[in-house]
Amino acid sequence: WTLEMVDTKSPCAGISNWKASTNTTGGTPGRKNSVDAVNNDGTAPQLKRAYTTDNTTIILVFDEPVDSLIGATVSNYTIDGGLTLVSATTLAPLFNTVQLRTGTALAANTVYTITASNIRDCKGNSIGNANVAKVGLPADAAPGEWIINEILFNPRSNAFDYVEFYNNSNKIFDASKLYIANRNSSGLVSSIKALSPVPFLCFPGDYIVETENADNLSLQYLVKSPDNVLIISSPPSFPDDEGTVVALNFQGNVIDEVRYKDDWHFKLIDNDEGVALERIDPDAPSQNAANWTSAASTAGYGTPTYQNSQYKRIQTI
After folding, report:
1. Residue 147: beta bridge partners?
2. Pairing label, strands 254-261, 242-248
3. What is the pLDDT of residues 55-91, one digit of tens each?
4. Cβ distance 17 to 102 under 8 Å?
């Protein structure tokens, strides 16, 4: 089945202007597209996120292509922290990213805020309030800094596993250089998958969730920060009775690990299907069963992308 453009008068509209062919043959080569229609794009562009490629280069990611000339106007962007921006370039071929260069280098372990103004898409829709993004220089994670915070290993029927990570540090991490894995029957780290195929910055205090299906996750639980859900195709498997979740850094070192068991759930729960296992204290040991319990029923049995329903600080555990 081919992808067909909806409105040929809006060739730069991006994802909203493409649909799967509805022709019974699967495509319409040499003929008018089966999905041909007027695409009335009235949606303003949004600045979704930003990342760095070096200490003076920042990439802004918008949710759709932007007007390339307006995107390349450096006066349309501001950054805090005493930095100045010296150039802006709208990047081909999709024109949904803009490269900014700073006059001085970004400092380590510092979170900067970028604001985009006057940005428009190809239909002339002007950016609204979704025009701010955080950025900074990522570092490599060490044990205790990037932790496994919540595990759903026994999902409801027609649902999917998820694992939530928490940035328990003052550092910035890049999800494309962080990995999730399990251990095979021989006890070896196995099924290693990067959390993101592209740069994705995780800031201090962020809750980042990996799952196979983000839309399904939102049907099952309240997801307060949908942009912090990362999709992994064919993620590591986590059995319903017991298993191991492993977090690795860019060097391939294990920085957190949880060998969970289903009996870690609250004892009075008759059926733990669809009930996430939550870490109680981020600073308490990962492998202590007393530091894990079932997500509260009042929170819908799971809290992906925000603080655990059972969170509390424990002096000694």
Report:
1. 166
2. antiparallel
3. 999 999 999 999 999 999 999 999 999 999 999 999 9
4. no
Cβ atoms < 10 Å from Cβ of 283: 12
The tens digit of pLDDT for each residue in 12-53 reads: 777 888 999 999 999 999 999 999 999 888 889 999 999 999
> 213: closest CA among 204, 221, 203, 205?
221
Cβ–Cβ < 8 Å for 120, 146: no
DSSP conformational letter for 201: E
Place of tokens 């029927």: 157
CB within 8 Å of 11: residues ≥ 6 apart: 5, 17
In sequence order, what are the residues at sequence separation of 6 or more whose Cβ sits closer than 8 angstroms to the Cβ of residue 28? 2, 4, 21, 34
* Whether 176 contacts 199, CB under 8 Å: yes
Q: Are the CB atoms for 154 and 275 separated by under 8 Å?
A: yes
Q: Collapsing DSSP states into helix, strand and coil, what is residue 151?
A: strand
For residue 4 the two structure tokens come to 């067909």
Do the beta carbons of residue 56 and residue 139 sit within 8 Å?
Answer: no
What secondary structure letter does DSSP report for 144?
A: T
